[in-house]
Amino acid sequence: MKDKIYGKVPVYFLNFFKKESASGLILLSFAVLAMIIANSSYADTYFGFLDTYITIGYGQFSLSMSVLHWINDGLMTLFFLMVGMEIKREIAFGELKSRSKMILPVSAAIGGLVIPAIIYLIFNANEPTSAGWGVPMATDIAFALGILSFVGKKAPKGIVVFLTALAVVDDLGAILVIAIFYTSQIYWVALVIGLVILIALALANRFKVKAISIYIIGGILLWFFVLKSGIHPTFAGVLLGLVLPIGKNETEYQTSISHRFETKLLTWSSFVIMPIFAFANSGITIDFPNLSTLLLEPVSLGIVLGLVIGKQLGIFGVSFLLVKSKIATLPDQVSLKYVYGASVLGGIGFTMSLFIASLSFLDATVLSTAKMSIMIASLLSGILGAIVFKLIELSEDFQTQILQEKA
After folding, report:
1. Measured between alpha carbons, how far is 372 from 158 in angstroms, rounded to an integer?
2. CA torsion sign, 72 to 75 to 76 to 81?
């Protein structure tokens, strides 16, 4: 059965799929643990630890941030480095390599970005919470692939590749939103220095510099100056991922610096960095007596409906129109019902949605409400997506049984 979902998938993609799908369960466990602690007698200890400031360096060359910010601004840069490398790999060798292959996942991803944002703004226009329109735009690939690996074992490999390519474009869109719309003030001197470092790294790639230390030191400096520029520092991770040497073909990729970085970081990203992020950002103090009222707040309605309904409308709606108009074609052995299942799973926002929410809302109550809404929407999308794929599997088994009886 597994051969159908894996097929002749390249080894690097198979490793990525296994790591990402497995990490979904770990993420969920840490998120639940954080919520339990945040609503227990240990809540003060939990929040106090996250608010503790840690200083690295000395004097003018020091950097002081809370534990939460070190996680979100520092540790998460490594996650975004993975995202940058995934984007580059997909463009070089994957589903985004050719125009014919990229039309469907790119267009579907754009639909899945725009429609949820519009739905959110419908409920939050002229509200103080209007800045959160970027929250329901993102898809959490770890959770989505995790659920697909459990309930879609008979699904064709094309839907896995489609969902992954879609999530990569989705991440790129979310990253651009963060960089452009969630930057309040730019310090140009630091930005120019960061740009010079980025150009130097790109030239190192161009002239085939193979010293990993150059890219590590350059990446740290790039992160520091992007942080000082006012742009969110995780953007430095994406940029570094895009300039790392990747090779001219899949054979060269196997020995490239990008592949070596990815091999080292994939396990850490999936099983250490992301669980720590989930634990630090999922601690929500739930106001149970007023829970129903909070869920009817504009920010809650915008996020829940944006992720659960908006993602379906955007991803499946665009895919349906492109396929029926013959502008794009479906991957091998993939039907529109599988695309619909993927569009439902696209409503699992979690990681990136939590990340954007932390940038959007300064008010602690609003942020807590937003996080709770993200989790509810992600849970609903996960359950609905699992049901859809199970129904598809049952339908295909029934059809196979009928054909066998007729034969």
Report:
1. 33
2. positive
> For residue 63, what is the enclosing H or E element?
strand 63-66
Give one word for 65, left, alpha or beta, with left for phi > 0 and alpha for psi -120 to 50: beta
Q: What is the three-class DSSP state of 66?
A: strand
* Side chain identity, residue 205: N
Radius of gyration over every alpha carbon of the chain, rounded to an integer in angstroms: 21
Structural domain boundaries, residue 148: 2-182+232-406
Using CA atoms, how far apart are residues 158 and 45, in angstroms rounded to an integer? Answer: 46
Residue type, 309: I
Is the Cβ–Cβ distance between 146 and 24 less than 8 Å? yes
Domain for residue 282, yes or no? Answer: yes
Residue 135 to residue 352: CA distance in whole angstroms: 8
pLDDT tens-digit map of 273-327: 888 988 998 888 877 777 778 888 999 999 999 999 999 999 999 999 999 999 9
- Tokens describing residue 191: 């930005």
Residue 247 belongs to a domain with what CATH number? 1.20.1530.10
CA distance 313 to 121: 16
pLDDT digits (tens, 9 = 90+) for 352-401: 898 899 888 988 889 999 999 999 999 999 999 989 998 988 887 667 66
Domain count, the chain: 1
pTM listed for this prediction: 0.80
* Residue 176 falls inside a structural domain: yes
Separate counts of helices (H) and strands (E) for the chain:
21, 2
Lookup: tokens for 204: 């190192």
In this structure, which amino acid lies at residue 30? Answer: F
Straight-line distance from the first to the last Cα atom of the chain, in angstroms, rounded to the nearest whole number: 22
CA 172 to CA 5: how far, in whole Å?
25
* 406 Cβ neighbours under 8 A, 6+ residues apart: none
The residues, any chain, with a CB within 8 Å of residue 208's CB and separated by 6 or more, are 245
